[in-house]
Amino acid sequence: MSEHRRGELRRIVQTRGFASLAELADSLSVSESTVRRDVDVLERLGEAKRTHGGVFWTGSPDKMRVFDSRGDDNAVHKRQIAVAASGQILDGETILLDGGSTTYEIARQLVNRRLQVVTNSLPVATLMSGCDSIELILIGGCVDHRTGVTIGPMADALLSTLRVDKAFLSVAGVDQEGFYNSNLMLVETERTMSRIAATTCIAADSSKFGKASLSRLCGLGDVQWMITDKGLCDDWRKIMTAAGVELILAEDQ
């Protein structure tokens, strides 16, 4: 595929959110078989997902480059964690995704699944808004312009009226005292998320371990699952297990 055609294909799918193969073939003046091959390339790059008769955009939002994986040394681990997380989710469940690059990768894996998804992440909501099989609930509140998530009292009040099967949260750091994030209001919102979930899962790559941040979300034993990559050292594996957390190590892809 030429760079020009790939750029046009990316632009069309990104702008529309979803496009049929017939529409793409007509817009690009190529055959549907050519479009299928081109879409396969975008799928391998994590920018699109082909479904029956069409293509969903699963790449980074156009104007919010927070989750652009280029230059992210841990991008591969985050994708591995996302695949592992999606394997823990059953069709028909109600799940919650907070904001962050790892949870955005999880959202990419869930496109076209039959789910109820609650999120305070504008990028996640944008990604899933065109998917008919997903019932999407977007939490309102004050928007953090750096991360594109809603936080604060309004978000917490709405969340407290809900109940979800599984909540997937991202963190900035993990030490023996617990899990951390750097935004005080975000941590309060994540605490509410954890309270309304039957199962709380922290999804974070191994680079986050041994680090603290401004505000402690909760203790290690206050969550049920931890999904990380196989780069986690043996000492940390023992610490998490001793805390009563079910440790799920993502497989290499």
Index terms:
253 residues; alpha/beta; Arc Repressor Mutant, subunit A; Rossmann fold; 2 domains; 7-stranded parallel sheet; 9 helices; 15 strands; 36% helix
Commentary on this structure:
By secondary structure, the chain is an alpha/beta fold. It has two domains: 3-57, Winged helix-like DNA-binding domain superfamily/Winged helix DNA-binding domain (Arc Repressor Mutant, subunit A); 70-249, Rossmann fold. The protein is 36% helix and 25% strand. It has nine helices and 15 strands. The chain has helices spanning 3-16, 21-28, 32-44, 75-86, 101-110, 122-128, 153-159, 184-195, 234-242, and strands spanning 18-20, 48-51, 54-57, 94-97, 115-119, 134-138, 142-144, 149-151, 164-169, 173-175, 178-181, 197-203, 215-218, 225-228, 246-249. Strands 6-5-4-9-12-14-15 form a seven-stranded parallel sheet, sandwiched between helices. α7 runs parallel beside α8 (184-195). It starts with a helix and ends with a strand.
What are the SSEs and their pairings?
Layout: H1 3-16, E1 18-20, H2 21-28, H3 32-44, E2 48-51, E3 54-57, H4 75-86, E4 94-97, H5 101-110, E5 115-119, H6 122-128, E6 134-138, E7 142-144, E8 149-151, H7 153-159, E9 164-169, E10 173-175, E11 178-181, H8 184-195, E12 197-203, E13 215-218, E14 225-228, H9 234-242, E15 246-249
Parallel strand pairs: 4-5, 4-9, 5-6, 9-12, 12-14, 14-15
Antiparallel strand pairs: 1-3, 2-3, 7-8, 10-11, 11-13
Helix pairs in contact: 2-3, 4-5, 5-6, 7-8
